[in-house]
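pasting for ref
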Amino acid sequence: MKRQPKWEGVFPAITTAMNQDQSLDLDGLAQHIEILIDSGVTGLVVCGSLGENQALKPWEKLAVVKRAVDVCQGKIPVVSGVAESGTSQAMEYVSAVEAGGVDGIMLMPSMNYKGDSDETMAYFRTIARSTTLPIMIYNNPISYANDITPDMLNQLSDQENFVAIKESSGDTRRITDIHNKVGGRYALFTGVDNLAMEASILGIDGWVAGTGIAFPKENQYFWDLTRSGNWTEALKIYRWFTPLLHLDVHTKFVQYIKLCVQECGLGSEWVRAPRLALSGTEREKILSIIHEGIAQRPKID
């Protein structure tokens, strides 16, 4: 039987490395994954929002998953984002990545339909019943319209393979509401970079990190400080990190973080259309934030 992932710690959501012609750069992806593993992360998310899931062709997503599984070799669990538009398509994709060796999935609501709560829960239950994989429920009502409330999480708690929540509503009050409603039923992850400190204080098990893929050593150091309760030192790191973490919560977060990855020497800025690489004054503004962060990055023993 396949070993179940331990749902805690930093599960970075890695970008999908690409060449300038928008083709996949699987070798670049593999090199970045190795660096993340060496930094001490405890899991890896591929083909999430930051991984440009919906801009990838089905075979490309499976190629990304395969390379990630091959590189990780069981050292850390590999979780694939699921962002299909229809229920049957999602079930087909989940079946394919399960056969491909992933350790779990991160399930978003149907991407093109703002359903009511009954429809959203029916979608989640149908996918869950189609697989034996453990599932992280991804709640991001700001970006994807459907809000998975604490009451809905409570109703879904009877489905055993729902094991974790990526809470990205942007409202830290939700963390306490989830604790109060469902206790420790799910492993609770934050998915909002610039609320990582606040979320940690309120009580989380993990962090699906974005900008941290460009600063893996510092990201892991900050996380470890929150685990040990060294809030004074954690706050120092967080204040340095926050301008960079803000890059995760913009419409162009993929471009911003890919540029950050490039400037840190861990990849390239190329994205898949309809996204366009940054240019002009916007690019210069983001570069200035990144370069200032690099210049002031803390010294870590």
